[in-house]
Design brief:
Strand order of the largest sheet: 2-13-11-6-7
Helix content: under 10%
Mean pLDDT: 82
CATH architecture of the largest domain: Sandwich
Strand content: over 45%
Shape: elongated
Number of strands: 20
CATH topology of the largest domain: Immunoglobulin-like
Number of domains: 2
Radius of gyration: 25 Å
Length: 225
């Protein structure tokens, strides 16, 4: 009788281990991704240096395809990375690095301004679960660099060397001024209506200025020599 109970207990333990054995995929790091405060995302501007690390935090191995999905402020799911056939083999606690091809941020998936972006690995087949990563992205809808000239902002001198002045005397209720480099990084941000901005230490090149006021957005292109 005791032997029967012992064998029954062993069988229950084996079944329970099988039921709870599961792969679990999680993103442990992302580099080259434009996070708010470090970068600004523009519509249809590609990012081709994103690197993602996926870890199997489950208690059983994973073998198959692990795509990486992404969802912006519009709540529509996009694909950041499509895995190759049997492209991911992960023992428990092992990690792998994925290199997504050029990713295009589109207004189909992102809202103007701040977006809470969800990124997660997704097993194409099987019962592996996944953990999501949450990021903040600041998105601006421009179709091209030429579109930055929409409502022209007066900048002088342009090209600039030491100081530049913005023609803001006739613009009411300024909310912010932002200046971006060619990579989309913010090099200057202010909520004050400063006409003069010191640019003496800036790297020579092209910069984009965005001014938000109650009457609309003013934009301009600045050349630093």
């Amino acid at each position: 009788m005791k032997a029967t109970r012992y064998h029954l207990l062993c069988l229950i333990l084996l079944l329970s281990q099988g039921l709870f054995a599961q792969s679990r995929l999680a993103i442990t790091s992302m580099t080259g991704f434009p996070i708010t405060g470090q970068d600004t995302v523009y519509n249809n501007i590609p990012y081709d240096s994103i690197v993602v690390t996926i870890k199997n935090t489950g208690n059983t191995g994973f073998s198959g395809e692990a795509d990486i999905l992404i969802r912006g402020g519009r709540g529509i799911t996009d694909t950041l990375f499509t895995d190759s056939v049997n492209g991911t083999q992960l023992a428990p606690n092992d990690s792998t690095t994925k290199f997504p091809p050029s990713y295009l941020f589109s207004s189909n998936y992102y809202l103007d301004g701040d977006n809470i972006v969800v990124v997660w690995p997704q097993a194409r087949f099987g019962a592996a679960t996944s953990d999501s990563t949450y990021l903040h992205v600041y998105f601006i809808t421009i179709q091209s660099i030429a579109e930055l000239k929409g409502r022209e902002l007066i900048i002088s001198p342009n090209p600039g060397t030491d100081f530049i002045r913005l023609g803001i005397s006739e613009i009411n209720q300024i909310e912010y001024v932002r200046i971006f480099n060619l990579s989309g990084g913010i090099v200057y941000s202010s909520k004050d209506a400063n006409e003069a901005i010191q640019v003496r230490t800036w790297t020579p090149g092209i910069y984009f200025i965005e001014l938000q006021s109650k009457s609309g957005i003013y934009k301009g292109r600045l050349l630093i020599q």
